[in-house]
Amino acid sequence: MIYVEGLRKRYKAKEALRGIDLEVPAGTVCGLLGPNGAGKTTAVRILATLLRPDAGRAEVAGLDVVRDADRLRFRIGLAGQHAAVDELLTGRRNLELFARLYHLSRAGARRRAGELLERFGLAEAGRRPVKEYSGGMRRRLDLAASLIVSPPVLFMDEPTTGLDPRSRMQLWDLLRDLVKEGTTLLLTTQYLDEADQLADQVVVLREGVVAAAGSPAELKRAVGGDRVRVLFREARDVDAGLRVLRATGSPELDGADARQVTVPAADGAQSLVRIAGALDAAGIPVEDLALRRPTLDEVFLRLTA
Amino acid sequence: MTKPSFDTLRWTVLDSLTIAGRTYSRQAAQPGEILAFLVFPVIMTVLFGYVFGSAITLPNGGDYRDYLMPGIFMQVMAMTATAAATAVGEDMARGIIDRFRAQPIARSAVLVGRSVADLSMHLLSLAAMVLAGILLAGWRAHGSLGATAAAFGLLVLFGFAMIWVGTYIGLWVQSGAQADAATFGWLFPMTFLANTFVPIEGLPAWLKPVADWNPMSAVVAATRELFGNPTSVSSAWPLRHPVAASVLWSVAIIVVFVPLSVNRYRSTSR
Ligand SMILES: Nc1ncnc2c1ncn2[C@@H]1O[C@H](COP(=O)(O)OP(=O)(O)OP(=O)(O)O)[C@@H](O)[C@H]1O
Ligand SMILES: [Mg+2]
User: Considering only CB atoms, which chain A residues are within 8 Å of B269?
Assistant: First the structure.
């Protein structure tokens, strides 16, 4: 549904994209991840026909983003980095305005605005001017405005930046529903848990190039498997503990705390059970024992360092 | 899309009307703004008409307040640029221009719709200004009905041109405040570097050519002539043929700034 090859973009002195390849199958979610200045917004703006690439090719819904821009605009929705709605107008008037600009009839625009307000929990708020909205409501209205023509492809640039955890989860649910209905979604984010929650595929950008790509699980595996972390109660037990742990793997002392040791857990939770049993049998007291899976944060920090 | 050009034209008009409707809705949502619009003329009339007016005598005779009012009318029309730049700059900063650009809207509709709606709003403040002039300064048009209409026509044309100057500037800035600074800063002083408030004859020799060739001087001189109000005299071409000069200036500004703005709006290189 989205196909990108060798995409490059330079702003005067700064090369924002230095050859990006990307493929997003229909009906899936791609999370574009990267630190500030990585080129996420630039990539989204090119795909949404706002910016012309210097080199490379990008196709969305089978249409070239440069040559077929006019036709493509009927088939995409864009929610930018800031909620792009008119503060002075009511939520309803905003949606009607954007609907009219998609050439819906007056009655059609009114009907569509009503449907979207209802769907995004803004039926009441629709009568009030947007400047009275909370950040979460504004974001939902912005999303609604991007969905007027039910576009098959949706771009969202940092959709949940600045939202509280509840609003964020609300928005995630709305996005999951859209994807269930068949929408292809490309979203940028700086939040790893967001990519983890929503994305089928994560592409990590760093300084305008793809640093890594794959499913969240694949990326985590690439950084390292599960580990068991053992925190002994007494420092003097550590040597005895290491002898016991060597039977299950190769334990490493943790620099942060002299009482802490980590062991690779090849069998996941089963390894944890085995280690617990062995330590208990040897009578070594443990303060804390935990199975740790690598987080996307670790992937992110490792890849964008 | 290669559609018949009639369709393109039709959508340009309809989209422009939709955008104009948005401008009106915004205006209706902030009645305070409109009030400010209407109070400003009163302040200007009183400030210049009575405070400065008492200190200025016209070299060619005539009543200063009669001389002043066409200048203030022109100033109201010139400052349309600031309002347009601020509004466009705000839309840029909020990403609303981006949203419009990602929608299949006719090429020039967003800017054309805005400019026309803007102009109609400014006609309201021009009307307020005229009323203030008549009631507070005893200003009158002494020319024929046709000449009076022509004078207002020139003011409207000039205002429309200045809206496009402001629109273009607004498309380059990152916020409404920046747009305000990028227009008001030179525009407001420029309305004084002309025959707007003082007789041009008294200016120092190095400043006089600036005032002579300032498009605002041509507009003011033309409207004074058409209204039959006292005017100031200069041998510079634009002020000897003020009506022709102000039409030329306004048309030139429009011909330059409309395509520049539309291109900037469409530009995919920013
Ligand atoms: N209009 C512009 N002119 C010049 N440089 C730009 C422009 N827009 C972006 N850049 C530069 O290009 C690079 C990529 O910017 P971009 O906005 O795509 O990054 P981003 O990943 O979206 O960052 P953020 O997380 O901060 O939103 C940055 O170094 C930025 O400074
Ligand atoms: Mg960004």
Answer: 51-52
Instruction: Tell me, yes or no, if B95 comes closer than 8 A to chain A by beta carbon.
Output: yes
- Whole-angstrom distance, CA of residue B33 vs CA of residue B134: 23
pLDDT classification of B269: cutoffs 50, 70, 90: low
Residue B245 scores a pLDDT above 70: yes
**Domain limits of chain A?**
2-221, 224-294
Flag if A78 and B99 touch (Cβ within 8 Å).
yes
CATH class of the region A224-294: alpha beta
Please give the Cα distance from A176 to A168 (Å, whole number).
12
Query: Is pLDDT at B70 greater than 70 in this prediction?
Result: yes
B105 CA to chain A: closest CA distance, Å?
Answer: 6
pLDDT per residue as tens digits for the range B154-164:
999 999 999 99
Asked if residue A39 has its Cβ within 6 Å of ligand 1, the reply is yes
* Protein residue with its CA nearest to atom 18 in ligand 1: A39
Pull the structure tokens for residue B211.
């005032």
pLDDT digits (tens, 9 = 90+) for B124-182: 889 989 999 999 889 999 999 999 999 999 999 999 999 999 999 999 998 889 999 99
Chain B CB contacts of A93 under 8 Å are 25
ipTM here: 0.88
Alpha-carbon distance values, B1 to A71, B7, B217, B263 (Å)? 7, 11, 46, 18
Query: Chain A partners of B14 at a C-beta cutoff of 8 Å?
Result: 103
Q: Amino acid letter at A29? A: V
| A129: closest chain B residue by CA | B29
**Do residue B99 and residue A71 have CB atoms under 8 angstroms apart?**
no
Interface check for B21 against chain A (CB to CB < 8 A): the answer is: yes
Pick the CATH number of A2-221 from 3.20.20.120, 2.40.170.20, 3.30.70.1020, 3.40.50.300: 3.40.50.300
- Specify burial of residue B269 (Cβ count, 10 A radius: 0-12, 13-18, 19+): exposed
Cα gap A233→A246, rounded to integer Å: 19
Q: Is the dihedral of CA A252, A253, A255, A259 positive or negative?
A: positive
Query: From the list A70, A78, A145, which residue is nearest B1 (CB)?
Result: A70
